[in-house]
From TrEMBL:
Pfam families: Transket_pyr (PF02779), Transketolase_C (PF02780). GO terms for molecular function: metal ion binding; pyruvate dehydrogenase (acetyl-transferring) activity. This is Pyruvate dehydrogenase E1 component subunit beta. The keyword Chloroplast applies. The keyword Magnesium does not apply. The pyruvate dehydrogenase complex catalyzes the overall conversion of pyruvate to acetyl-CoA and CO(2). It contains multiple copies of three enzymatic components: pyruvate dehydrogenase (E1), dihydrolipoamide acetyltransferase (E2) and lipoamide dehydrogenase (E3). Its cofactor is thiamine diphosphate. Gene3D superfamilies: 3.40.50.920, 3.40.50.970.
C-alpha cells in the first residue's frame, strides 16, 4: 500500500493499461506535452509518444467522433474532457453514436471508449465550468456512468472502464484531485455497476456519490456523537443504479436520505426516488428526503456559490428530521 493522490491514481491506471495493451491511447486538449489540466497524463507522451497521447484542437465534437471511430476499429480510446462542461459540445456524438452504435449495428461494432475528466462545483469557477453533467447523460441508452470519490476507487474504476467493451463516462470531481488515500501495490479492479457500503448502520440510509461522500462522512461524525447510527452508501455507478444495495439497506433502516451535488430537477436522486416508489415503497417508514443543488447556474460569488450546494449541517438536520 502507498499513499497516492487521486490524480496520480488515475495516471497510474492509464499508464498500466497503456503498457499492457497497445490499443489503449489518450486524446484530448493539452493531454500531451502539458500533461493534462490536472496532470492526470503528465509525462505519458514521453513514454508512449505523441500518437498514443494525442493533443487535439479545441474541437470537442470532432475529436469525440474520431475517438468513437477508433473504438469501432478495435482501439481503446480514453478521451479527457479538460472540463466536463465542454463535452456538451460533443453531446451529439456521445448520444447518437457512442451510446447507440453497438445496438444499431446489430452488435457488429463494440465501442470500448472511456470519457473522463473534471466536473462539479469547484471554487469560483463560474457557471460554465461548474456543471454537473451526470443528469444530462443519464437518459442516454447504451452508456455506463460512474463517479469516483477516492483515489482507491478512481484507479479501480478507470482500469475497469478501459477494459470494458462499452462506452463509459467517468466523472471526477475538480476538488478531489489532491485527495490522498492508500492504494494497493497490486493490480485491482472495481465493478462498474456496484455501489459501496461505506459505513454500516441501522437508523437511516444515506445515499451519495462523488464529493458529497466526504460531506456525508463529516455529517456522520457529528451524528454518531448524538447517538445516531446511519448507514452510508456511495453509489459509484450512476448508470445503471445499483438499486439492490440501496434496498438491502432499506430493509434494515426503512428511511432514506439522498445527498447529491446534481441539480434537483431530473437529477440522480429523482431517478432513485422513482425506482424506490415504483417497486419498494413498502420498505419506507417515512418520506424520502433529497438534498440537491439549487436549480440555478452556479454563481461566481463565493458565498452565493456555497449557498447552492449541500454542506454537512443540512445533512445532520435532515437525519434528525427523519428520525424525530
Amino acid at each position: 500500500m502507498s499513499k497516492t493522490f487521486l490524480f496520480d491514481a488515475l495516471r497510474e491506471a492509464t499508464d498500466e493499461e497503456m503498457q499492457r495493451d497497445s490499443s489503449v491511447f489518450v486524446l484530448g486538449e493539452d493531454v500531451g506535452h502539458y500533461g493534462g489540466s490536472y496532470k492526470v497524463t503528465k509525462d505519458l507522451h514521453v513514454k508512449y509518444g505523441d500518437i498514443r497521447v494525442l493533443d487535439t484542437p479545441i474541437a470537442e465534437n470532432s475529436f469525440m467522433g474520431m475517438a468513437i471511430g477508433a473504438a469501432m476499429t478495435g482501439l481503446r480510446p480514453i478521451v479527457e474532457g479538460m472540463n466536463m462542461s465542454f463535452l456538451l459540445l460533443a453531446f451529439n456524438q456521445i448520444s447518437n453514436n457512442a451510446g447507440m452504435l453497438r445496438y444499431t449495428s446489430g452488435g457488429n461494432f463494440k465501442i470500448p471508449l472511456v470519457i473522463r475528466g473534471p466536473g462539479g462545483v469547484g471554487r469560483q469557477l463560474g457557471a460554465e465550468h461548474s456543471q454537473r453533467l451526470e443528469a444530462y447523460f443519464q437518459a442516454i441508452p447504451g452508456l455506463k456512468i460512474v463517479a469516483c470519490s477516492t483515489p482507491y476507487n478512481a484507479k479501480g474504476l478507470l482500469k475497469s472502464a478501459i477494459r470494458d467493451d462499452n462506452p463509459v463516462i467517468l466523472f471526477e470531481h475538480v476538488l478531489l484531485y489532491n485527495l490522498q488515500d492508500d492504494i494497493p501495490d497490486k493490480d485491482y479492479f472495481i465493478p462498474l455497476d456496484k455501489a459501496e457500503v461505506v459505513r454500516e448502520g441501522k437508523d437511516v440510509t444515506i445515499v451519495t456519490y462523488s464529493r458529497m461522500r466526504h460531506h456525508v462522512m463529516e455529517a456522520v461524525d457529528l451524528l454518531i456523537q448524538d447517538g445516531f447510527n446511519p448507514e452510508v452508501i456511495d453509489l459509484i455507478s450512476l448508470k445503471p443504479i445499483d438499486i439492490q444495495t440501496i434496498t438491502l439497506s432499506l430493509q434494515k433502516t426503512h428511511r432514506l436520505l439522498i445527498v447529491e451535488e446534481c441539480m434537483k430537477t431530473g437529477g440522480i436522486a429523482a431517478e432513485i426516488i422513482a425506482q424506490i416508489n415504483d417497486d419498494y415503497f413498502d420498505l419506507l417508514d417515512s418520506p424520502i428526503i433529497r438534498l440537491s443543488s439549487k436549480d440555478i447556474p452556479t454563481p461566481y460569488n463565493g458565498n452565493l456559490e456555497k449557498a447552492t450546494i449541500i454542506y454537512p449541517k443540512q445533512i445532520v438536520d435532515s437525519v434528525r428530521k427523519l428520525l424525530s
